[in-house]
Amino acid sequence: MAFNISTISCFVPGRADATVRKMLSLYNPVACVLLGDMPYISKSLTAWGYSLSTLDKNSTEQDFRDHYDQFANHPAIKELRNSNILIYSVFDDHEWGGNDWDHSLVKANATPSINAITQADVNKHWKAGRDAHDYNVSTYYDNPPNTDLDAVVTAADRPENALLEGQDPPVSDYSVAYWRQGFALDGSLDNVAPHLEIFTLDCMSYMDDIEKIDDANKTRLGPSQLAWFKAHLASSTATFKMIVSSKNTYGVSGGSNFDDWDTYTTERDDILAFIAANSITGVFWVSGDQHVNNVAVQNTVEHTYDHFMLNPCPFAQVYSATTPTINTQTIWADKQQVFGLISVHQDYCDLSICNTATGKVLFKGSVLAGSNRYSVRDIPVAI
Ligand SMILES: [Fe+2]
């Protein structure tokens, strides 16, 4: 028995209609994770019965909903929805305006600017987009509710930038969007005795300013989500744990952006040290956002603890013209339109990056049960 899960991230309409058909017919996944930047609300587009404009500080929740509605009616996404597989939708920064959203005026007004004047404008834009995302998920997708009693939001979880200029937004503006879902070895949903457990992180709602000093006071996940994540990762009985993070753990800098875990290294390293200290195995990370497909591996001496991250991105988006600077953890990178494929078996998971147009596997590596180590099954093509 085995089953597949696919992931796609960064989708600009007009590029990938045939890909979904190929992905479904070749690999027959039981689920697909939409891993962020879907849609880009800054893109104006007239198609499929919708005529949309770029959103800014004056946009309403309905304006955001229109973008989500249009995206859900893209022929490729419609085909995916009609396939009856599970579809999970995760937001990243471009479900809001600006670039590299971190609740700051600076990033909200980065190109494409929302033309905010005050922090209140930024918070209002966030709230409209966040409410529209809830509508989007409940209308079109299959994200499970988070029923864990420790999945909470407190006043301390609110992002620091949102509190500037005397603002005091309610905690309900930052409601829980992170969750976990178990699967049995036959690919059916199973939260009682899962073989695979997916942990989907919210990398946006609680984050500190990207440019804040990177020390123990800087957070991307916020205190409540971080505590939830650690507690349930440690207590998970699943053989494999798939961490869905819209941000790279080790980025390919220079080619796309610096908005990844490389600017939150203290919190990242604390999480990875926690996994090592608690002997949590079968862990791998799947990310998006950076428009350079890449794979990162962080090995330790004697492989007492390792880390393996797959970034199958972008699905249908252009690349930066800048040549990327490869991180020391990067073992493979390429510039193609891709999707991710997680093939879950009894004793191993194969993690692949596949070409969008052909479905062909470009990279494949494995994690073995009882380990976090990247192991080679197919020799990856060097960058
Ligand atoms: Fe993107």
CATH H level, superfamily name: Alkaline phosphatase D (PhoD)
Q: Could you say what the CATH architecture is?
A: 4-Layer Sandwich
DSSP strand count: 16
| Ligands, deduplicated | fe (ii) ion
Largest sheet: 7 strands, mixed
Gross morphology: globular
Task: Describe this entry's structure for a reader.
The chain has 383 residues and is α/β, with parallel strands linked by helices. The protein has one domain (3-376): Alkaline phosphatase D (PhoD) (Purple Acid Phosphatase, chain A, domain 2), CATH 3.60.21.70. The protein contains seven helices and 16 strands. It has helices spanning 17-27, 61-72, 75-82, 105-108, 119-140, 223-235, 265-277, and strands at residues 3-8, 31-34, 45-47, 50-52, 86-89, 179-183, 196-200, 240-244, 283-286, 293-298, 307-311, 330-334, 338-344, 348-355, 361-368, 374-376. Helix 1 packs parallel to helix 3 (75-82). It is globular and about 55 Å long. The model has no long low-confidence stretch (mean pLDDT 93). Fe (ii) ion binds at residues 10, 37, 94, 289, 291, 317.
Summarize the structure.
This protein has 383 residues and is α/β, with parallel strands linked by helices.
